[in-house]
Design goal:
Layout lengths: L2 H12 L3 H8 L7 H13 L3 H5 L7 E6 L10 H15 L4 E6 L7 H8 L6 E5 L4 H10 L3 E4 L9 E5 L1 H14 L5 E6 L3 H16 L6 H4 E4 L4 H15 L8 E4 L2 H13 L9 E6 L5 E2 L2 E2 L1 E4 L3 H16 L7 E4 L2 E3 L27
Helix pairs in contact: 1-2, 1-3, 2-3, 5-13, 6-7, 8-9, 11-12
């Protein structure tokens, strides 16, 4: 069925004019909600909704809410790249993008409502905002809305984010598989998503029947900067005293934190990876540090914007569909900053295996 026949057939079945059907299928705003619903239901009955959904996004304007730092590549490259992914995903649809800065927590609810209630705000993307009040307001407004790298605990809004818990579990598990038992986890825990990574790290130790002692294996920072990470690791090593208690590996919460870790180790006379391995959970900003190629787990970033638009389209076409929480997996990049330890250096802390366990 070609495009002209689609319009004519839908117009005939719905009793709407051809111009009204055309405006709905083109995503124009000057159509009533009832007309739009009739057109979409008719398209679905005729089996042509999939063709429509893979074509033009049926709206003209999207409002993007994010922390102020997300709009500056120098202050938050992760969220900045997420926004660039949104721009790229919407470019083919000729959709206007508008922006509004909100705090991560204790956000300005009045500002949010004023932007959402504007006639040109047909849908919204909320990036990295943890304020549950904002989530509740968005759900109550009944406009298509998708959360990015945050979640609605009341389960009323679609959301998409990296699978932070699995990313933490996989990263720590990789180092454990390489024979590292004394791993220092250098993490920033300022958001719930980072707490999920820590939960994954704990799970990796549990799977290996190994204890995880936060007092000896976890150093936290307030941000992801290299200077703060360098100071934190320098202080930690200085307080150890016993060189036999030094970690054999550092798992950093981001590439710039990995820079700080390598800087600290080199200043203290350690070689990476010969004396101590360094791994990052980020993997997009820096391929190497001081000529040392960085092993890292790539956290989904550029893909978030595109997949969020797909969720937004799904919600518009199927307003009664179940609320979706989509998690994207990471990708391991093995380079040279992690050294594999030999078997003598990697005996399990607890062994549950016995050769007679299954003997008759």
């Amino acid at each position: 069925m070609n495009g002209k026949l689609k319009v004519q057939e839908i117009a005939r079945q719905t009793g709407l004019s051809i111009s009204t059907v055309s405006r709905v299928l083109a995503g124009k705003a000057n159509t009533s909600s009832s007309a739009r619903q009739k057109v979409l239901e008719c398209a679905e009955r005729n089996g042509i909704l999939q063709a429509i959904s893979s074509g033009r996004l049926m709206l003209n304007s999207v409002m993007v809410f994010a922390p102020q730092r997300a709009f500056d590549v120098r202050t938050d490259i992760f969220y900045y790249r997420v926004i660039q992914g949104i721009i790229a995903a919407l470019a083919q649809h000729e959709v206007r993008i508008r922006y509004c800065a909100l705090e991560e927590t204790h956000s300005d609810g009045a500002l949010f409502l004023s932007k959402m209630n504007e006639a040109q705000t047909q849908a919204a993307l909320i990036i990295g905002i943890d304020d549950e009040h904002i989530h509740a307001l968005a759900a109550d407004l009944h406009k298509p809305c998708v959360l990015i790298n945050c979640s609605d605990r009341s389960m009323r809004l679609d959301s998409i984010s990296p699978d932070h818990q699995r990313i933490g579990e996989f990263s720590a598990g990789y180092l454990l598989q390489q024979g590292h038992q004394r791993i220092l986890h250098l993490q920033c825990l300022r958001r719930h998503t980072m707490e999920l990574r820590l939960a994954g790290i704990r799970q990796a130790y549990l799977q290996q029947h190994m204890p995880f002692d936060e007092s000896r294996q976890l150093v936290t920072t307030s941000g992801f900067g290299s200077a703060e990470a360098e100071q934190a690791l320098t202080t930690f090593i200085g307080q150890l005293g016993d060189r036999d208690a030094l970690p054999t590996a550092v798992l950093a919460g981001g590439d710039y934190m990995a820079v700080g870790a390598v800087n600290a180790l080199q200043r203290l006379g350690f070689s990476v990876p010969n004396d101590m391995s360094v791994m990052s959970m980020d993997g997009f900003n820096l391929a190497e540090i001081h000529d040392v190629p960085l092993t890292s787990l790539h956290v989904p970033r550029d893909e978030l914007g595109f997949e969020a638009i797909q969720l937004l389209q799904r919600r518009m076409l199927r307003p009664d569909a179940p609320v979706c929480n989509q998690l994207l997996q990471g990708r391991l990049a093995i380079r040279e900053s992690v050294k594999r330890l030999n078997a003598q250096q990697a005996t399990p802390a607890v062994s549950t295996y016995h050769h007679k366990l299954y003997d008759a």
